[in-house]
Every structure is written in structure tokens, then in C-alpha cells.
Amino acid sequence: MRILGRDRADNSVSLRLECDEDVWHLHNVLEVTDLVTASTTRREEKATDKIRAERTEKKRMTLGVRVEKIEFSDSDMRLKALGTIETGPQDLGQHHTLIFEPGDTLRISKERWKSTQLGRLERAVDDTAKPRVVFVSLDQDEAVVAVMRQYGLKEIASIRSGRSGKQYEEKQVPDGYHGEIIGKLKATLEGDSPLIILGPGFEKEHLAETIRQKEPGIPKPHVYHTGQSGMQGINELMKKGLGADILRDSRTGLEMEAVERLMEEIGKDGLATYGPSEVLGAAAAGAVETLLVLDSKIREEDLDRVIREVEGQRGKVLVISSRHDAGAQLDALGGIAAILRYKSS
Fold first, then answer.
1. What's the CATH number for 133-249?
2. Which of 56, 86, 197, 282 suits 47 as a labelling partner, its CA being 20 to 30 A distant?
3. CATH architecture observed for domain 255-340
4. What percent of the chain is modeled with pLDDT above 70?
5. What local confidence, expressed as pLDDT, does residue 242 receive?
6. CA–CA dist 199, 142 (Å, integer)
């Protein structure tokens, strides 16, 4: 994401969406009643007589739409902002839908920007430059290729080996299986993206060796053993802290590590608390080391008071994505929790 400017006269921020994760960040910043201004297309209506209107071709124009409804699709990473036209060359007061994808530019005007919203925009700018971590989680029968995005893990492809029977010669690995995996990797890896290969058994080592010998253009993979393959294996790896040196720079890895620490403290009745009133009390006492808040809860509630309280006491604030396992764990705790410096009561 790129922040193009901020105008305090109308309390607006201008943005450029540079990658698909930026659409996800926009979903977490945009609210009903915001005024969103962007280039769009709309059909002009020209009355040719009193009975019929001639439908013309759509033309590009800049419209300001007062948002009434927001729809986000993570399958194609598009966001729709539906509302009434408030500024523009025509059709003031009529409904229009703005559609946002990577590459689009827009201006958002709010009555008040929350600190969490401005913080998310700043993180989005920083995270755009970080390489995505790519995973291959496999066994002898099936492989999953996944990418760690800023909002969580996303499965890219599932590949069957096509082997028949329970027994096979480990050294006789069909080129088709590894070849298809490598083809997906070439289409997915970007620049210096770290590559992690994991799973049970020896298939991960066979694939890593194939890459080393035949694909010098693919970065040297990091290989880890897990008890499971598929997406379950990736989550197992992250929960165990394997590959922490690689994953720590990623937003999702940081979030999962923090929630795992929270759950450990809760499990031993240690330095942790959860729930709105409990966390607010701990924050007021200056006891919060790290505040964990679910992104969906921030969209639903104004939590600036407790966030300012924690930041004022030099505590950290982590907004946790609801789109991975750690987010589901935090959601089960009410969407807000804290790792403490000391017990406040």
C-alpha cells in the first residue's frame, strides 16, 4: 500500500492499493458513513423525449460515494462499497457501487479516524515490502502449496501424486508429482520469498533434493518435519515455533506466536487475562504488556480508549487476523485479551 497524502481539511487519506493484501486492509479500515472518492464508470442517461431515455455508453468519472454497505470477497480480493453519490458531475443522491482491486487509487474521508485504522495503514505500507513465505506441505500421496499473506494462510493448490497401492519404491519418485509441485512454486514465488517444505516421512527431503538438483532458480528450501501434512501440518509447524527465524518477520507468524504465548499463560493461570472488562481493568492498572484484539472486533466496536491506555503505558498492541487459527482461538475468548506484566488483581 502507498499513502499518497492526508488532508486535514476534510479529514481524508488518499491511498493506492498495490497488492491483494491491501484490499484486505481496506476492508478493515473502511466503515459505513465514510465518504469514498474514486475514479469509476457510470452510464449517462440522455432524455430523447418525454417517454423514453436513450442508454449511452458508460464513461469514466470521479464520484464521491457515502458508504452504506461494504462487501469483501477474499476469493478474488475485491471490495465493493455501495452507497449514494454525494460528489461528482451527475446523479447526485442516486446509488452507485465502487469496486476496488490492486492498482486502484481512492480517498477516504471520515468524521474521525481511529488510531487502529491509521496504524493499520502504516503497517500495510511496511508489510508491502516484506517477502511472502511459501509453503509446500506434503506426504507421498498429496501436496498443498500455500502462501502466508498479511491476513493469514491461503491455500494456492492441492496436488495428488497419482500413486496406486500402499507400497512403492521411495527412490522411484514420479516426475509428474514433483514436476507439478515445482510448476506451482514457480508461479507463486516472488523475488526472495522464503520457501518452507514440510511434512511427515521422507517425501519432503525427496522434493527438496529435486529442487536443489534441477531448479537452481528456486531459493534453497528450508525443510521441517511435522506429524501431519496439508494445511494442518503448516499450522502445526507454526504452533511449535519451528522455522521461527523465518516466520517472525511475517505478520501472521508474529500473531500466531503471540496467541500461542497467551494460551500458555491462560493454561497455567499465569500472566494473562481476557474479556472486555478484565482487559480494560488491567490496562487501567498499567499491567498490560501486549494487547491482542481481533480485527473483526475493531470493525464492530470503538476500542480506542483501551488501546490508548495500553500505548500510554508503553504496552504493545497487536491486531489479530480472524482468518487463521490463532484468530479463531482469540475469537473464542471474546476477541480481546492481554499478556500481562504482572497480575493486576
1. 3.30.420.60
2. 86
3. 2-Layer Sandwich (3.30)
4. 90
5. 65
6. 10
- Count CA atoms closer than 13 A to 255's CA, side-chain side: 27
Burial of 54 (0-12, 13-18, 19+ CB in 10 A): exposed
pLDDT digits (tens, 9 = 90+) for 297-337: 988 888 888 888 898 889 999 989 887 788 899 999 999 99
Where does the pLDDT of residue 196 fall: very low under 50, low under 70, confident under 90, or very high at 90 and above?
A: very high
